[in-house]
Design the sequence.
């Protein structure tokens, strides 16, 4: 799911601020902002009605999966669910492609929704129907930059997630969602794979692309030679799942270049250009491949772009590859089978890694990063003292600052710290101290000089309720200052956690 979607990592948010209604309002009128999002969903169905079979023959179930849309004002909109949870009530004033709409207004707040909005999310289950769980597309919406936003971006997200819904019918093989911490071998050959895919894509014939496709196959074998079978299967599964979903975006973009019938006008959606410049969007995919291939520590996000370009190249040179996927083969296995390397061709590719890919300089570059990561991890493990945790999970705020960092699994280590985190009415300003971000939502800081400080923190707030929530809070510690609308505090002898419960 468009988890890294990265395309590579999105900030997805859900406000839980002051509630203005304890039950869903049956007379509630959807804001125009939300109606525009529903228009984009209707256009998505319209486009897939015309081109879904060009992505995958037989893909016709995209209207069978409900959409749940969550907004920062607390509103939730459910489209097409056969048995909505009780908190949802029918919204009789509007339908999407004949599908019913239900709304939940129990947590409305005073946040003002404005277009444009971006979204991110994934696939989950919500309720059941006929004794079977109902799979839905779950999306959260947040403000997008006015200068760069186009509705096409959101429509592509919808297409991506709907393809995820169809993928279990394509390939039933499942595996654990493993995260590989790269060693030098993995990082080195990962970059060679990406470069080989890029060069193969840029050529105009199989004859020109074939040497680079061979290079990719050899590099993949060398990259995975020390991985267990479960690790190889997990990576192949992720590469297909995310890569083929991105491939669906690319295929749709190439399809609409030929022309299509839209059901929207600019009055319906002022941010929609009807895919009038698809090449602008298509260029982004090669840009993502170029920028990702050399990233030493981020192996997972490569699944999106490597899988996509493997599918593109298979479709270009070896049509019919989809049948092999449906029989249980992974993308890299199909590529290897179609290329059918000889021992001599493998030796030639290994030599090309030296002559063409500059493997020695790549090795030096990746080794420096990996050594830095390993040394830094030891330093972080040895830090002892009073521990502070800031928890943003209740407000669904990913922590992904761009300050210099090293990744190890789902830990991001910031040796020089983080300058500031800010979203909505929440702000956290840090002093220059090492910071960890764990499991996407938890910021960890350790005060190694706790003996010098009288108190671990001081707090100022406007009000406090019986449940232990503080409102309009300023918390000052030796390492950072936190300001937030609503916070709870959990303390132990040598640790404190500040849990953020509201954005505004």
Sequence:
């Amino acid at each position: 799911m468009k988890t890294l979607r990265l395309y590579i990592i999105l900030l997805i948010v859900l406000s839980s601020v002051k509630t203005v209604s304890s039950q869903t309002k049956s007379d509630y009128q959807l804001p125009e902002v939300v109606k525009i999002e529903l228009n984009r969903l209707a256009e998505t169905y319209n486009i897939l009605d015309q081109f879904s079979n060009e992505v995958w023959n037989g893909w016709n179930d995209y209207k069978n999966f409900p959409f749940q849309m969550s907004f920062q004002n607390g509103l939730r909109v459910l489209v097409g669910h056969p048995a909505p949870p009780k908190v949802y009530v029918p919204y009789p004033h509007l339908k999407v492609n004949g599908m019913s709409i239900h709304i939940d207004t129990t947590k409305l707040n005073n946040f003002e929704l404005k277009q444009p909005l971006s979204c991110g999310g994934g696939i989950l289950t919500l309720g059941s129907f006929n004794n079977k769980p109902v799979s839905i597309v779950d999306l959260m919406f947040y403000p997008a930059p006015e200068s760069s936003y186009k509705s096409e971006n959101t429509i592509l997200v919808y297409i991506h997630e709907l393809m995820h819904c169809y993928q279990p019918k394509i390939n039933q093989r499942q595996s654990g969602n493993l995260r590989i911490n790269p060693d030098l071998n993995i990082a080195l050959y990962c970059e060679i794979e990406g470069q080989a895919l890029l060069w193969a894509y840029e050529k105009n014939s199989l004859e020109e692309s074939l040497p680079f496709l061979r290079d990719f196959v050899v590099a993949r074998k060398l990259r995975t030679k020390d991985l267990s079978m479960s690790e190889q299967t997990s990576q192949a599964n992720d590469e297909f799942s995310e890569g083929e979903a991105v491939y669906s975006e690319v295929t749709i973009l190439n399809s609409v270049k030929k022309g299509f019938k839209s059901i929207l006008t600019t009055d319906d959606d002022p941010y929609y250009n009807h895919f009038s410049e698809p090449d602008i969007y298509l260029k982004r995919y090669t840009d993502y491949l170029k920028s990702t291939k050399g990233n030493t520590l981020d192996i997972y996000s490569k699944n999106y772009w490597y899988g996509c370009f493997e599918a593109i190249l298979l479709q270009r040179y070896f049509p019919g590859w989809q049948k092999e996927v449906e029989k249980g083969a992974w993308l890299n296995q199909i590529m290897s089978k179609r290329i059918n390397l000889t021992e001599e061709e493998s030796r030639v590719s290994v030599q090309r890694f030296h002559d063409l890919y500059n493997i020695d300089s790549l090795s030096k570059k990746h080794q420096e990063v990996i050594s830095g990561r390993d040394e830094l991890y030891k330093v972080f493990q040895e830090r002892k003292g009073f521990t502070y945790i800031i928890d943003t999970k209740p407000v669904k705020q990913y922590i992904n600052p761009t300050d210099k960092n090293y990744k190890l699994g789902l830990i991001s280590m910031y040796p020089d710290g983080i300058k500031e985190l800010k979203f909505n009415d929440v702000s956290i300003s840090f002093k220059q101290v090492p910071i960890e971000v764990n499991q996407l939502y938890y910021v960890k800081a350790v005060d190694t000089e706790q003996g010098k400080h009288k108190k671990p923190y001081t707090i100022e707030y406007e009000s406090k309720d019986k449940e232990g929530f503080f409102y309009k809070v300023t918390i000052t510690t030796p390492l950072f200052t936190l300001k937030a609308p609503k916070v709870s505090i959990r303390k132990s002898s040598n640790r404190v956690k500040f849990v953020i419960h509201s954005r505004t």
Notes: The longest strand covers residues 117-129.
